[in-house]
């Protein structure tokens, strides 16, 4: 499903080149569940953003579902991202001007899903995450944990083929975190490919494979 070949990410300053990722080679099969671990600054979020088509590598090739996405134009990348990828952000990235219901509904609108079906999907998400009573509230009226739940609901509502999760349980207490990990495991069993970045050893073990990043390199 995913092939990364010789992926580099760097920024050039006046006197030197600063590497964030170096020579990343990675194969991810459809239906895998992968955890990416490593210290802060190792390049984990950058790797996730490149896989999610939110950032471009400085060098290298990226094939998603056998398509060379490193050659796609910006508009095509956006289309590909909307059609196939769900993203759980560490910083939520909810839209402040939209309430909970509308935030969850937004990706479904982009994908052209009809109103009745959208309403059913959003109702199911609100129920599943126990946030029905919050549906009319705006992000700033929610706690960090509640915003995280809305972000997760939004990411999985459209049943993406690929789910990318950057610290999906970072703002949740441990029981909520386990519930979310159980849900991700269930979605994975149903066929969703999942790549998560996590610092939590317990939650990392929900995956079939753990990749360790250090100084921009895959160490194991």
Give the total of beta strands: 10
Shape: globular
Largest sheet: 6 strands, mixed
| Share of residues in strands | 25-35%
List keywords for this structure.
220 residues, alpha/beta, Rossmann fold, 6-stranded mixed β-sheet, 7 helices, 26% strand
Secondary-structure map:
Layout: E1 2-12, E2 17-28, E3 33-37, H1 44-51, E4 59-64, E5 67-68, H2 74-84, E6 85-88, H3 100-110, H4 115-128, H5 144-157, E7 162-166, H6 174-189, E8 193-197, H7 201-204, E9 209-214, E10 217-218
Parallel strand pairs: 3-8, 3-9, 6-7, 7-8
Antiparallel strand pairs: 1-2, 1-4, 4-5, 9-10
Q: Could you describe the 3D structure shown?
A:
With 220 residues, the protein is of the alpha/beta class. It has one domain (2-218): Rossmann fold. It is built from seven helices and ten strands. It has helices at residues 44-51, 74-84, 100-110, 115-128, 144-157, 174-189, 201-204, and strands at residues 2-12, 17-28, 33-37, 59-64, 67-68, 85-88, 162-166, 193-197, 209-214, 217-218. A six-stranded mixed β-sheet has the order 6-7-8-3-9-10, with helices on both faces. Strand 4 and strand 5 (67-68) form a beta hairpin. The longest helix is centred in the last third of the chain and has 16 residues, at 174-189. The protein starts with a strand and ends with a strand. 40% of the residues are buried.
């Amino acid at each position: 499903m995913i092939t990364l070949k010789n992926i580099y990410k760097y920024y050039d300053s006046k006197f030197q080149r600063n590497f964030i990722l170096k020579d990343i080679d990675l194969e991810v099969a459809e239906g895998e569940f992968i955890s990416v671990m490593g210290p802060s600054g190792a390049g984990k979020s950058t790797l996730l953003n490149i896989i999610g088509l939110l950032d471009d590598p400085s060098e290298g090739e990226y094939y998603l579902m056998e398509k060379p996405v490193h050659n796609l134009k910006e508009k095509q990348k956006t289309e590909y991202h909307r059609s196939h990828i769900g993203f759980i952000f560490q910083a939520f990235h909810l839209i402040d001007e939209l309430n909970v219901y509308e935030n969850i509904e937004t990706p479904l609108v982009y994908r052209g899903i009809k109103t009745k079906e959208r309403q059913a999907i959003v109702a199911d998400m609100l129920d599943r995450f126990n946030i029905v009573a919050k549906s009319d509230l705006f992000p700033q009226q929610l706690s960090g944990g509640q915003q995280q739940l809305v972000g997760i609901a939004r990411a999985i509502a459209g049943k993406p083929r690929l789910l990318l999760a950057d610290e999906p349980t970072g703002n949740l207490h441990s029981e909520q975190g386990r519930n979310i990990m159980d849900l991700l495991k269930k979605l994975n069993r149903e066929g969703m490919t999942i790549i998560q970045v996590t610092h939590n050893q317990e939650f990392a073990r929900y995956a079939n494979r753990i990749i360790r990043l250090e100084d921009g390199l895959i160490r194991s």
